[in-house]
């Protein structure tokens, strides 16, 4: 099932790739940037997926600005880990004060 969800997300990103590049181009033009495209920007997307009785995933929507509010300790833990992983992926790694 997780492979099917991964496939659904990849196909969605491929489908909207031209729109994403258009957004980057508009950002560059609106900020009067010259030269190569910026490599220091990223977007967190929220995919809402429904799993039916046959364990088939269905894409409900994609949120460009998913809520990071937390309503419970579990919600806080999940979203905190999500942000740690996101920052690690883009190269922002927290220094561990115990290793210095």
Keywords:
alpha+beta; 2 domains; two-stranded antiparallel ribbon; 2 helices; 46% helix
Walk me through what this model shows.
With about 100 residues, the protein is an alpha+beta fold. The chain has helices spanning about 1-30, 75-90; strands at about 45-50, 55-65. A two-stranded antiparallel sheet has the order 1-2. A hairpin with a 5-residue loop joins β1 and β2. The radius of gyration is 17 Å and the shape is extended. The model has no long low-confidence stretch (mean pLDDT about 85).
Number of domain units: 2
In terms of DSSP E residues, the strand content is 5-15%
End-to-end Cα distance = 43 Å
Mean pLDDT: 85
Q: Give the proportion of residues in helices.
A: 40-55%
Cα Rg: 17 Å
- Along the chain, the helix and strand elements come as HEEH
Strand order of the largest sheet: 1-2
Major sheet, described briefly? 2 strands, antiparallel
> Structural class from helices and strands?
alpha+beta
As residue ranges, the low-confidence spans are none
Tally of strands: 2
What coarse outline follows from CA principal-axis ratios? Answer: extended
């Amino acid at each position: 099932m997780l492979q099917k969800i991964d496939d659904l997300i990849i196909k969605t990103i491929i489908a909207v790739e031209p729109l994403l590049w258009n957004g980057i181009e508009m950002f560059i033009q609106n900020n009067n940037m010259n030269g190569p495209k910026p490599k220091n920007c990223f977007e967190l997307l929220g995919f809402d997926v429904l799993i039916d009785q046959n364990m088939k995933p269905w894409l409900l929507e994609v949120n460009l600005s998913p809520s990071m509010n937390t309503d419970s300790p579990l919600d806080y833990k999940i979203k905190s880990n999500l942000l740690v992983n996101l920052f690690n992926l883009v190269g922002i790694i927290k220094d561990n004060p115990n290793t210095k």
